[in-house]
Structure formats: C-alpha cells, structure tokens
Specification:
The chain is 25% helix and 22% strand. The protein is α/β, with parallel strands linked by helices and 254 residues long. The strands form 2 sheets. Strands 1-2-3-4-5-6-7 form a 7-stranded mixed sheet. It has a 6-stranded mixed sheet with strand order 8-9-10-11-12-13.
C-alpha cells in the first residue's frame, strides 16, 4: 500500500486532485476535489469553514484561484457548501458559476455568495472540450442531491453515496469497506428502495474510480462488490432510534 502525504493535494486520476482534510482522531472525513481542464478548473464540494485553510492551501498548490470557473455543490449541507462564499472571495472572478440543482439552490443561497448558478437541469457541462455529466440522486440524502460523472477519467464523484464511518481510515477503500458503508448509509439514507434503485443507474456507467465526499476512494476492482453491498443495506434505521430524551421510539420500520 503506497504511503501518502495527506497534508498535500493528491492526484487520484489525471488532473484530478483530492483536497481532503485528514483527521486521525475523527471517524468522519470530508473530501473536496479539484479537476483541472487545461489551465482552468472545477472545484467539487469545497468543504466546511473549519477546513477552509487546509483545502485552500491544497487547491492553490494546484491551480491559481482565478482559474477556478465552477464550484459544484452536490447538495446544501455545510460540510461541503459552507466554503463557497469564502472561495468566491479568493477566486474573485465574475465568470465563476456555482453548479447545483434548482431544489438545492433554495438552501445554498443562504450561504450568501454572489456568483450566478449554473443548474444541473440545464444538462451536461461542456468545459474546455470536456463533457461532465450530472445524475440526480433524490433523497440520497437530500431531495435535490446529485452526483458528477467524468467520462474522460471514468470517475464518479458520488457525494454522500458510498460514504462511510471508518476508524482505521485510508485514502483507498479496503476489504472492510462495505461494513463501514453500512454504518453510514443505514442511518443517513431513507427507508425503502431509493438507494438500491440508484445502484442500477451507477452499474451502467463505465467506472474506474468512485470518489465520495466521505469515506474512502473505491478503485475499479472494488466497485462491483461495493455496489452489491449497498443494494443489500437496510436504510432508514435512524427512525428506529431514540431521537432525543423522552421521544417516542418507532419499532415498525422494516
């Protein structure tokens, strides 16, 4: 297993960089990514305010801030979207666009950035001769959630899907990863077949790498087994837990 310097941006595919924050104590890791297309770039899920100095340092080691043309926010949560207005200030470009769904934009607008939206509903992104596809993933875990597919590199930026809680974290997923995914998806994803059905969509893609917002990267040989694992997870299990002291516990969730 290679040794990585987690204090630096790590190239995980040609001109695709992991900008994540490595915390040896936490079981929950957040992963922004950067794609360079020529001398311009796309920043994916730029992260939370506490992580901004580290993410910004890594991003600017790869690209000049003003060359970042798009920021993708796969949903509205602060662990991935709170840094949008902070990055907007250092990018300082009237050409910057924020890519998200119309549904997610109702909430991301509350972060207070000024950059216009480029909505997922407008179709694939054509950028410097490359095409990037957006696939909506409603209720995984937000109603306006989506993922990004890079056909040139066969990389799926999967947001919360394929995420995990993992004590012995590593950049790339190991044999125990399905169990780590179960801990995350069983409580964060809704009950029913929403997650299982989404796996059928992903199976049709040509994939060499899955890059989730949380957890570890999944390499080509492990993609099939991890998709199969997510098909079998019983989701919505947080409904069976006590939400706060004195609450009613539901035991009717199958």
């Amino acid at each position: 297993m290679p040794t990585y310097d987690y204090s630096k941006a790590i190239e995980i595919a040609p001109d695709v960089y992991w900008l994540g924050f490595y915390d040896p104590v936490a079981n929950f890791h957040c992963h922004p990514y950067l794609i360079k297309v020529g001398d311009e770039g796309i920043l994916i899920d730029p992260g939370s305010l506490p992580h901004f100095p580290i993410v910004a340092k890594k991003a600017t080691s790869v690209i000049k801030p003003r060359k970042i043309k798009y920021i993708i926010a796969h949903h509205q949560d602060p662990d991935l979207a709170a840094n949008i207005p902070v990055f907007e200030k250092i990018i300082h470009s009237k050409d910057l666009r924020v890519i998200t769904t119309e549904r997610a934009s109702f909430l991301t607008s509350y972060y207070g950035f000024e950059a216009p939206y480029r909505f997922v509903e407008e179709g694939p992104l054509q950028f410097n001769g490359r095409t990037f596809q957006f696939i909506t993933t409603p209720y995984l875990h937000a109603p306006g959630a989506f993922v990004t597919y890079d056909p040139a590199n066969k990389v799926l930026f999967s947001s919360d899907v394929f995420g995990s809680f993992y004590e012995n974290w590593s950049l790339y997923a190991g044999d125990a990863y399905p169990k780590a995914m179960e801990r995350f998806h069983s409580t964060y994803m809704p009950p029913g077949d929403v997650l299982k059905n989404q796996m059928g969509v992903f199976e049709k893609l040509q994939l060499d790498l899955i890059a989730p917002q949380h957890g570890s990267l999944i390499e080509k040989t492990a993609i099939g087994p991890n998709i199969d694992a997510l098909k079998k997870i019983r989701t919505g299990q947080y409904l069976k837990k006590r939400l706060y002291a004195g609450s009613v516990v539901r035991n009717d969730i199958k």
